[in-house]
Amino acid sequence: NCSLEMVTVDGLNVGVLKVPSGINKPYLFSGVIYIRVGPNTQKITTIEEMRGFFQQSNRIYFDESPSREFDITKQLDLAHFALFRSDAGIHASISDDHVLNNLQLYTEEGYFKSGAVLFFGTHPEKLYEHALVRCLAFDGTDKRYITDDKKFGGPLYLQYKQAMEWLRNKINIAYDIEGQGAGARKENWEIPETVFKEAIINSLAHRDYYEKGAVTAIEVFDDRIEISNPGGLLSAIGNEFGKRSLSRNPLIFGLFDRMHLVERIGSGIPRMKELMQHQNLAVPEYKTEGMFTIVLKRHPETVEKTVEKAVEKTLIALIIENSKITSREMVVATGLTRRGVEYQLNRLKETGKIERIGPDKGGEWKVNE
Fold first, then answer.
1. Which helix (H) or strand (E) holds 144?
2. Helices (H), 60-155
3. Residue 143 pLDDT more than 80?
4. pLDDT digits over 244-268, tens only?
5. How far is CA 305 from the centre of its chain?
6. Of 49, 73, 202, 328, which sees the most CB atoms within 10 A?
7. How far is CA 317 from CA 238, 324, 327, 332, in A?
8. What number is the average pLDDT over the span 289-302?
9. Which of 19, 44, 49, 48 is nearest to 33 (CA)?
C-alpha cells in the first residue's frame, strides 16, 4: 500500500513516493532478491548474504530448527539444566517439563530445537560435530609452532567455562591480597577477565552454526589473543556495530541472557573497549568478513617478557647442543648483538640456569637441571 504526496522544493513540485517495508519477504524482481542498505539497493549474491537476509526477516534460524535425532530422555544434561535453573532464578517447585515448555524449546512437531540441544545436550557435538571450541597456543606471533591444542565440547555454557579455565593457564595473572580469609585474593588478568567473558559468550551466541567448515577458535600468540567464530557481521548491523544487538541465534542468546551473561542492548563492544583502555591496553580490533574475529593486543611488557623467554630457551638449546659454543656463534644463531647475548647469559647465570666451567677461553657451559 504505497502513498504519493507532493512537496515543493526550490519552487518545483516534487513527488514523494513512500513504499513501506513488506511483511512477506523476500520479494523477487526478475528472480533476484535485492536489499536496501542505506541509500543504496544491492543484489544478494552470496550464500552468507542470503542466509543473513532470511534471518533478519525472521524466516530462518539454526537454533529454531528441529533436532530430530535428539532423545531428551537420554541426552539431556540434567546437571547442566539444574545449573541453568539456579542461575536463571527458576523456583524449585516448577517442574522441569514446565520449564522446558515455557522456554519454548520444542518445535510445533514436538522436536527439541537445535539451540536447546546445543545448550542442554550432554554431547551436542555428536549431532553437530562443528559445535566445538578449539583453543590453541602458539610459540611466537604466527601459527608455525603449536604448543597446545585443546577442543572443548558439551553444552555451550560448559564450553565457555572450559575455555575460560584454559585461558587462565595461558596468560599472566597477578594477585592482590585483600584482607584475610577465603576470597581475599583478587585476580588481575593481563587482559580483563570480563573482556574474555564477553568475547567468548558472544562468539558462541552469534556464530553461524550452519557453517560446517570451522569452529569457534581461541588462539593465544606472544603478542595478542584472537577469538573467532564462523559468520561475519550481519548485514543488518552495518554502521550500528557496537550500538545494537542482533543475533543469528536468538534462542541461544536468550538462554545466555537468562543466566545473566549477556546484554541485549549492544553494550558489550563499548564495555570491552572501556575495560581495555582502563588497563592501558590497545582497544580491540575486529575483522568481520567471513569469520568474525576480535583481536586483543597484549601489553608491551608481556610481549617483552615473552620474547626474553624465547631467547632464553634458544640460548639454552644452543648450549645443550654445543657446550663449547662461543658468544660470537650465539650472535650469529640468535641475531642478537654481542652485548645482547652477554646480557642474556648473565641473566641465566644469575638465576642459576647455566654456569661457566673453566676460563672464558677454553672453558665450557653447563646447563643446570
1. none
2. 72-75, 78-87, 96-102, 114-120
3. yes
4. 566 788 899 999 999 988 765 456 7
5. 25
6. 202
7. 51, 13, 14, 14
8. 85
9. 44
